[in-house]
Amino acid sequence: ETGVTQSPTHLIKTRGQQVTLRCSSQSGHNTVSWYQQALGQGPQFIFQYYREEENGRGNFPPRFSGLQFPNYSSELNVNALELDDSALYLCASSADRDRNTIYFGEGSWLTVV
Amino acid sequence: AQSVTQPDIHITVSEGASLELRCNYSYGATPYLFWYVQSPGQGLQLLLKYFSGDTLVQGIKGFEAEFKRSQSSFNLRKPSVHWSDAAEYFCAEYMDTGRRALTFGSGTRLQVQP
């Protein structure tokens, strides 16, 4: 049990649509990162938020965007969905007191048809 | 470019046999290295991590890993594999120690035969 909860667990969207994925982490976890894991691959870093500000981005286009709220929960938004966006999206969080221990949620499976 | 390489895509071992999963990193004189496990349909669970100090790191579930700077390796080992160890294993390192963002290898799928 990592204390990181993601929703929804599975969803299907049509190409061109928009999707919002949500993440709730442990109290005090002020750093949240999102990763995309395509089938058969390792997770790839999308971006990170620290105290509600974007704190770094991987090699993903601007149609991938996010938010972190005052309670440190987070959203990942993807606009203009493409078939290649089909993947497991993982949320990860950590706290200042132990920034090197990163907890992952179980992910949201997105299928784009 | 920074990369983490896991040369073995798929490994099969018999239950009770020893296990070694290979990982090579490419970034940093002082790498921050991790091993995660992912069971089917699950998220990632941290097995162990190495930042400095003793090059042999003990983790959960009986796993250990050895950091070898001369070989740029951080191989995961277990003396005796259990059927429940069947899963996908990912080696990772920080791509940016400031942001604590991870770069992962492509994973090694472990199958355990009875």
Structure overview:
Chain A has no helices and eleven strands. Chain A is mainly beta and 113 residues long. Chain A is 0% helix and 56% strand. In chain A, strands 2, 4, 5, 6, 9, 10 and 11 form a seven-stranded mixed sheet that branches. A four-stranded antiparallel sheet of chain A has the order 1-3-8-7, with no helix packed on it. In chain B, strand 7 and strand 8 form a beta hairpin. At the A-B interface, strand 4, strand 5, strand 9 and strand 10 of A face strand 6, strand 10 and strand 11 of B.
In short:
Helices cover 0% and strands 56% of the residues of chain A.
For the report, how would you describe the main beta sheet of chain B? 6 strands, mixed
Number of strands of chain A: 11
Mean pLDDT level of chain A: 93
Instruction: Tell me the span between the first and last alpha carbons of chain B.
Output: 41 Å
Quaternary structure annotation: heterodimer
**Mean pLDDT across all amino acids of chain B:** 91
Which range best describes the helical content of chain B: under 10%, 10-25%, 25-40%, 40-55%, 55-70% or over 70%?
under 10%
The share of residues in helices of chain A is: under 10%
Strand content of chain B: over 45%
Structural class of chain A: mainly beta
How do the helices and strands follow one another from N- to C-terminus of chain A? Answer: EEEEEEEEEEE
Low-confidence stretches of chain A: none
Radius of gyration of chain A: 13 Å
The beta-strand count of chain B equals 12
Shape of chain B: globular
Uncertain spans of chain B = none
Q: Class by helix and strand content of chain B?
A: mainly beta
The greatest inter-chain interface is formed by:
A-B, 28 and 24 residues
Series of H and E elements of chain B: EEEEEEEEEEEE
Q: Gyration radius of chain B, to the nearest Å?
A: 13 Å
